[in-house]
Structure formats: C-alpha cells, structure tokens
Design goal:
heterodimer, A: 329 residues, mainly alpha, B: 374 residues, 13 helices
Chain lengths: 329, 374
C-alpha cells in the first residue's frame, strides 16, 4: 500500500513539475530579457572595441533576435541538457553550475548535520526538564539565533576570523594547497569549512530546537507515554525510545524544506564568506547580466524547491501511517 | 531572507486545525507574554521614531563629508577636564590625526568644546515634508568647532549615526511596506477564495502554490537584474515594493483563505446571510475583525524576512545605491576586511538589524501565544 501511494505521489508531482518549471523559466526569461541593455552593453563604452565587433558578437549570441525566439532557442537546447555558455566566463553553464553545486552541497550538508546534532538532544532535554536552567538557556539562545540574520552572522564570523586569526578569512582552501585527498588538504578544507558551517547552521538549529522541544512536550503528554511509564519502563527508555521517536516526525519533514530553501539561504553566506558556490555564482551573474548562467541558477533553484517539497511529503508519508490511509482513501 | 515557505509551517497548520499544541509550541524563552510583547513593541516604537526623526537627532546630514576625519572613532564626551574639575555641561576635544595610514586619532586636550542642545545646523528634511535646521545636539562654536560623531565616521568622514538613522528610514520601511502590499493582495484574494470556494478557490490556490514553489531570493535577484541599475532611490524602493508583493502575496493568501473558510462555517455568518447582508459586507465587517489577530501575528513574524530581503539586496549592490543609505549598504562598507579589523563602530548597523529582528520576533511570538491561550 505504501509503495503504490508513493508511486502515485511521484507520478503526480512529476507531471505537475513540468508546467511549473516551464512557467518559471518563461517568466524569468521574459523578465530578465525585457530589461534594456545586455551583457555586451558595457563594451559599447570601450573605445578600443569596434561597433562591428559588438554587432557580430550580438549575432553570435543571438542577442539581436526577438525575445520569444531567444526563449525558444534556449528551451530547445535546455531540453537537450545544454544550458548554453556563460557570457562572462566562456564556460558551459552546466559545467560552471556542477562545479559549484558540489561546494554549496558540502556547506549545506555539514550545516544541516551540525544543526541536527545541536538541536535534537538539546530540544529533547529542554522538553524533559521544562523550566530548568537548560530549558531557559537553550530557549534564549534559540531566540537570539533566530533573530540574527545570516548576513549579520556571516559578518560577525569574518570579524572573528580577522581579529583572532584563528580561522581563514573566506574562501574554500588556502592558496597553494592542492585539491587532493592528502591529509594536509583535507585539514585545510575542514578549517575553511568551520565558520561558514556555523553561520549556515545556527539559524537552522534554532528552528529545529524549538520544533523538537514543542514536539517532545506534546508527545510526553500523550496517553501512550503514560502507558509506557505504567508498564514500568525506565524513564530513559520512555524518553528516548517512545517519546523522542515520535517527536521526530515533524522534524523529518523539515529536512525536505531545508533542501528547498537551501539556495536562498546560501546566497548571502557564500557572497560574504567568499565561498565559491551557487549563491555566489548567482550574484555574479546578476551583476554581469549573464543571462544563461542566471537562467541556469533559477532553473536549478526551482528544481531543488520542487524536489525538497517532494522529499518533505515523502518522508512525512513514510513517517506517519495515518497520512497513508488518508491518501489511499 | 528565506521568504516564501517557512520551515515551521506544517506544524502551525496542524495546530490551527486541531486547535491545540500551540501552547506547547510557545518557543520564546519563558518571558511572560505581556512582558515580551511590551518589550517588542517598545523597541520597535523607539527604532521607528528615532529613525524617522533621524535628521533632528543626528547632528549632521547623512551625506555631509568631512574629508579631514575619515574613520574617526566615536567622539568621547567628557565631564572632567585635564585638572580633574567636573563640568555640568559635557564637552569634547578636537581630534588630531596621528597615524595617517591607519587613521589613528588623538584628542587635542588644549581646548574644550562644550556641547549645546537644540542648535541650528545643517538643514534636513523631516518625513519628506518639512525642511528644518534644528538639531538635538551640536558643538558650540559652529563651523570652526570639531564635529560630534557619536558613532564615529566612515571612510569619507560621514557621520555613521546620521547614516544609520537615515538608512533605518529605508530599511525599516521598505520591507514592511512591501509586506503590507502583499497583505492587501493576499488577504483580498484569500478572502474571496475562502468565502466563495469552488473553481475560483482552486485556481487561486494553485497560483499561490506555484508562487510559493519559486525560489524567492533567487527570483528577486533575477527580477532585480531585469531593471537597470542606475535609477533613483525612489524608483528602487518602488521596484522592491512590487517585487516583495509579487513574491509575498501567496503565503498570505493561503493563510487568509484558511481563516476565512473556517469562519464561513460559523453560525454568525449564516445569521448575517439570513439578514440579507451582502457578501462584501459580511467579509469586511463580520469576518475580517474576527481573523485580525492571527493575521497581525503572522505580519509580525514575516516582517523580519522582508526587512532582511531589502537589506540583502542593498548589501549585494542591487538595491539602494550610494550615496543614499540603507542598513544593507552600510554593512557592505563594514564587511571590508581592513574596516573589520580596525573600525569596529562601522558594525553598528549589524546590531540594529539584530535588535529589530528580535523585537519583531518577540511581538510575533507573544501574539501566537496569546491566541493559543484564547
């Protein structure tokens, strides 16, 4: 029953995703393309470049064609998996994006992991010892981290790095350190990963912590917990095996949403901390009016949003048997 | 910054349906509800008031440069002179550049300059309506006197306090105004969908879902790229308002739809229909007052992300531009490594952003707790 429900959900989402992505891509292409000027406008101010050269380049990039034709051309090659060539970096967009996607994933994966490691035990403990100093402290810290935007956190992290010299200031690895699997290289990338990970994960951890605490408090009030206690189970078993497992359900869903919101969250952090990921790429593309790259990023971000929402729903379905029955009915 | 779908949404939704669990969700550090509400309201009131009166409170105009004193640290206010005598009227000393490379300053203790309150100085505009040249505080001696920079100066010798307050006029207002616009659209559409149901309902909600599945910040960046970069500050602000409304209406519409649909089933609505009231009257006069508290709470919870969206855009250089100021452009100046290392007072916008977000959170959370109690 579960398998068929999942398959039906997958099929429906897949069918829905096609028009959604089409609408998004057409909309963003129209908006970006409708603006006056293009990637070559800046060259017109340059006296050393002849007008004919610019005209030839425009023709080469099809920038002189009407918007609809350009969208058609873009869509045709996009469907074949070719997102065009970056106008500023002269590299295929797919290559550019895939090389940077790895960095963004590295950062967000470690951030999510850290957030869970901090939030789950602390949230559960806060719920069990409600009103104790640990509950108050974690609650206050959560409020503070929820109220500290990543932009501010990232700048504070830079401040820390600059003032103490304990951490590298931005970037993914030190100059001269090779990108291989040697111990020195790994240690260096780990060292560079610490601050951005902290910045990315603190606001997440705050959300998870509150969610965990709230879920635990609700579950601990449930009848089956009273039953478990009445059976004579140790408090430890009751809390960990019975309560925590059920309190985790809503959090599992959050994992999907974290993927969905991943790109939006990384734009600022990557820009401030000079982390060569997708977010930084997007900002540079906006500044350089690099339409192919921008379209690629928008497409990637929308796809991740759809996938994230799908994962959230799938996990929810797997974790909560009640939903399964609703879905089949 | 994460506009659009908020991670804790499924939880909230469930709470609304079952009507319980919100109390357990009460997240804030156990401040009594009324106290955290008052704290949030007071902070916001002070921030908005001080920002709007920025021209009066800051001694100088936010664009006035004083090239002789770049990166001047906050001016120290003295009560005791060199001999240790106490003066009731505070005074300052003239700064003397001792390290032209890193901009180190020393005080020239030979002559004190007393402060005066309610003085005439540079003219400024208040609320964009009046022009005035009265300032809360200044230094005696007029033009020749040293300048009073309570939060120091930036690289062009501009007063950081003045820029912070003026930036607040943009950063505190553009985001919430965009959210307000999103509310106007979202609540109207959501109310229609929730009241009438049917095809209209499913169409509107489908549109809302598509909007919400858009990656907000990436889309905002893309939209912003669509417009030329060299436009007036007013145009940029208007542009950002439109973008925020276009991205933000969907979540509001969904919330309003759910609330209106729930009220629609209540007896008092049936009674109003029986008395022959028109739909517009029922929605505006009967239903809206009843769903106002959750809408207001949601506004307070959403406001920080909209404020931050403006700050992020300006920070990335695609929002408000120099020489105009927003907390985003101020932070962009502060993130320079040599500034971070040497001129800590440039970080004050970061503190203000934090406090503003904190105040809105306190307000929003006390709101949801209040509703849970009812």
């Amino acid at each position: 029953m579960l398998a068929s429900t999942i398959i039906r959900l997958l099929v429906r989402r897949f069918i829905e995703a096609v028009p959604t992505l089409l609408i998004i891509s057409a909309l963003s292409f129209a908006l970006i393309g409708a603006a006056p000027g293009d990637a070559l406008s800046a060259l017109e101010q340059e006296p050393r470049i002849r007008a004919e050269t610019i005209a030839r380049l425009r023709q080469e990039y099809a920038l002189d064609r009407p918007l609809v034709v350009r969208y058609g051309l873009w869509l045709r090659s996009a469907l074949r998996g070719d997102l065009g060539t970056s106008l500023t970096e002269r590299i295929p967009v797919t290559t550019l994006i895939s090389s940077r996607l790895l960095n963004t994933l590295k950062l967000s994966l470690s951030a999510t992991l850290l957030a869970w490691l901090i939030a789950l035990p602390l949230g559960a403990l806060a719920a069990v010892r409600r009103g104790s100093w640990i509950d108050r402290l974690s609650g206050a810290l959560a409020l503070i981290s929820v109220s500290t935007p990543r932009l501010v956190l990232a700048i504070l992290a830079l401040l820390l790095a600059v003032r103490t010299g304990l951490f590298p200031v931005g970037n993914i690895r030190s100059l001269g350190v090779p990108d291989d699997l040697s111990l020195a290289s790994l240690a260096d990338s780990l060292h560079h990963l610490i601050l951005p990970t902290l910045v990315m994960s603190l606001p997440l951890a705050a959300v998870y912590l509150r969610q965990m605490r709230a879920g635990m408090i609700e579950v601990l009030r449930a009848d089956f917990i009273r039953t478990a206690r009445a059976k004579g189970l140790s408090e430890r078993t009751v809390v960990i095996r019975h309560a925590a497992r059920n309190a985790l359900n809503p959090l599992i869903t959050l994992f999907g949403y974290a993927i969905a919101a991943l790109l939006s969250g990384s734009i600022i952090v990557e820009t401030v901390m000079a982390w060569p990921g997708i977010g930084q790429l997007a900002v540079n593309a906006v500044r350089g009016r690099d339409i192919p790259v921008l379209m690629g990023v928008v497409l990637l971000a929308s796809t991740m949003m759809l996938i994230g929402n799908l994962i959230a729903d799938l996990l929810h379905l797997i974790a909560d048997p009640r939903l399964r029955q609703q879905a089949t009915r | 910054m994460e506009l659009g779908r908020r991670p804790n949404q499924p939880e909230r939704q469930r709470d609304r349906e079952t009507g319980r669990g919100e109390a357990a969700f009460s997240p804030s550090p156990r401040l009594p509800i009324s106290r955290s509400r008052h704290l949030g309201l007071t902070l916001l009131l002070v921030f908005y008031l001080v920002s709007l009166l920025g021209g009066f409170i800051a001694p100088y105009h936010f664009r006035t440069q004083s090239r002789a004193t770049p990166f001047l640290p906050p001016t120290r206010i003295h009560f005791f002179d060199e001999q240790g005598n106490f003066h009731l009227r505070p005074f300052i000393y003239r700064p003397k550049l001792v390290d032209p490379l890193l901009f180190g300053y020393e005080e020239d203790r030979s002559q004190p300059f007393p402060l005066v309150f309610f003085v005439q100085g540079e003219s400024y505009e208040l609320f964009g309506l009046f022009t005035s040249n009265w300032h809360l505080v200044g230094v005696e001696g007029g033009e020749s006197a040293p300048r009073l920079h309570l939060l120091g100066t930036d690289g062009l010798g501009r007063d950081v306090l003045a820029r912070l307050l003026y930036g607040g006029q943009i950063s505190l207002i553009v985001g919430p105004l965009g959210l307000l616009l999103a509310y106007l659209i979202g609540v109207s559409l959501g109310a229609l969908a929730g009241y009438y149901g049917g095809v209209l309902d499913s169409l509107l909600m489908r549109a809302a879902e598509v909007t919400m599945s858009l990656p907000a910040l990436v889309l905002i960046l893309a939209l912003r790229a669509a417009f030329p970069l060299n436009v007036t500050p007013a145009q940029v602000a208007a542009m950002m308002l439109i973008i925020f409304a276009a991205v933000g209406w969907a979540e509001v519409a969904r919330l309003a739809r759910g609330l209106v649909a729930a009220e629609r089933r209540q007896d008092y609505v049936a009674a109003a229909i029986v008395t022959g009231a028109r739909a517009s009257r029922i929605i505006l006069r009967h239903i809206l007052p009843n769903i106002r508290p959750p809408l207001l709470t949601h506004f307070a919870i959403s406001a920080p992300s909209f404020i931050l969206a403006e700050i992020a855009l300006s920070f990335l250089g695609v929002g408000v531009q120099e020489p105009s100021a927003s907390w985003g452009t101020l932070l962009a100046e502060a993130q320079d490594l040599s500034v971070l290392k040497n001129y800590l007072w440039m970080m004050t916008p970061a503190l203000m952003i934090f406090l503003t977000a904190l105040a809105f959170h306190l307000l929003g959370e006390s709101g949801s707790e209040l509703q849970a109690e009812r």
